[in-house]
Design a protein that fits this description.
362 residues; alpha/beta; seven-stranded parallel β-sheet; six-stranded parallel β-sheet; 17 helices; 13 strands; 14% strand; binds uridine-diphosphate-N-acetylglucosamine
Length: 362
């Protein structure tokens, strides 16, 4: 069968996956593959989903399963049921899953049960902390995927340790592709966005917190909040786009000097990341993006899957430690990030992934 007739099904569900697919999808189409996008509906608020499809020119999904928020087991189960039906209907030749969300796991599980080959983009990451839902998802998906596209050298080693040595390719990080693709837009829109948020370049802090380990643990949450309040009292503005899960913790309470805003689109997030003095976050994607922009990052966790960031001192693990969060946020300086392309690829990983997928079909 010629490549032009091959059908690839892309499973998406959560914010970072929309960003990653915006790098890979154009190449799938350019290379004559038929792509069917399925949105599980894991993220459904306008600011968490549709705004990314619009802002990143990602084609509208052919299917949206509208699963929404549930306990993890139920959410994954509902997705599995819905995705199996869609796969039976569409009969794809390959299923692409991204990263480590419940949508990733459900997509891979539905495909493997139907003997459909799976390409896992952003495989091989490990935190070695099974209490983290994402760790469970990525380990399981790596063990059933047929093609492993890993973003870093350390991910190859992680897979090797688990006996996964076949069909592993390190072409770099697709999020770095998106970053490179949009560089000129960041530059041209910089002034407008900085003005919109009424801040000065490198004179504010950009914060996000959404991981269950921080939002579901009151002690950790209080420690982090106390540190951020202390930092804001020195007069430096804090801009904090609030994830819906985190929003519940504020309970409409306003904190003086901390500017909470709704979740932001890709472009605004990138420009604020670039313009910030320091980024404080527990997001995996944002800690990398801070390094792409040369902005120092404090990670509100005790470990990171992106160990290259801490090894090269682009990012610092501060956990929920009040003293470390405060001290490092004052000391943080602009990073020399010359090596970033060497670590995350040269911004060409998507085209290489698609080339490899085409070879797989042959
Ligand atoms: C998920 C991923 C995480 C990823 C993150 C990106 C899993 C296990 N985790 O975490 O790896 O970093 O997406 O943002 O899949 N909610 C809304 N509206 C929405 C989406 C969520 O109100 O559009 C609320 C609901 O109360 C929901 C909670 O946020 O229960 C958490 O959402 P969920 O998709 O379960 O996990 P995330 O924390 O977003």
């Amino acid at each position: 069968m010629s490549n032009t007739k091959r059908k690839v099904m892309t499973i998406l569900g959560a914010r970072p996956q929309f960003i990653k697919a915006s790098a890979v999808s154009p190449f799938l189409r350019k290379e004559g593959l038929k792509e069917v996008i399925v949105h599980t509906g894991q993220h459904y608020d306008y600011e968490m989903s549709e705004i990314f499809f619009k802002g990143l020119n990602l084609p509208k999904p052919k299917y949206n399963l509208g699963i929404g928020s549930h306990l993890h087991g139920k959410q994954t189960g509902l997705m599995l049921d819905g995705l199996e039906k869609v796969m039976l209907e569409e009969k794809p030749d390959l299923v692409i899953v991204y990263g480590d969300t419940n949508s990733t796991l459900a997509g891979a599980m539905a495909a493997v049960k139907l003997n459909i080959p799976i390409a896992h983009i952003e495989g091989g990451l490990r935190s070695y902390d099974k209490s983290m839902p994402e760790e469970v998802n990525r380990v399981l998906v790596d063990h059933i995927a047929d093609m492993h596209f890993v973003p870093t050298k350390s991910s190859i080693i992680n897979l090797e340790k688990e006996g996964i040595i076949k069909n592993v390719w390190n072409y770099g990080d697709v999020m770095y592709d998106v970053f490179k693709k949009n560089l000129s837009l960041f530059e041209s829109m910089k002034e407008k966005i900085i003005k919109k948020y009424q801040v000065n370049y490198k004179e504010f802090i950009f914060v996000t917190v959404h991981r269950a380990e921080n939002t579901n643990n009151l002690q950790r949450w209080n420690n982090i909040l106390k540190a951020l309040i202390n930092i804001s009292q020195t007069g430096i503005p804090i801009i904090w786009p609030v994830h819906p899960r985190t929003k519940m913790l504020f309970k409409d309470k306003k904190i003086e000097r901390i500017r909470t805003v709704t979740p932001l689109p890709y472009l605004e997030t990138q420009i604020l990341t670039k313009a910030a003095k320091v980024v404080i976050t527990d997001s995996g994607g944002l800690q990398k993006e801070a390094a792409f922009h040369g902005t120092p990052c404090l990670i509100l966790r005790d470990r990171t899957e992106w160990c290259e960031l801490t090894q090269n001192r682009y990012a610092f693990l501060v956990d929920d430690n009040y003293r470390k969060i405060c001290e490092l946020s004052f000391r943080a300086k602009l990073q020399n990030n010359e090596k970033i392309g060497k670590i995350f690829g040269e911004g060409k990983s998507s085209s290489k992934i698609v080339e490899r997928i085409k070879k797989f079909f042959k």
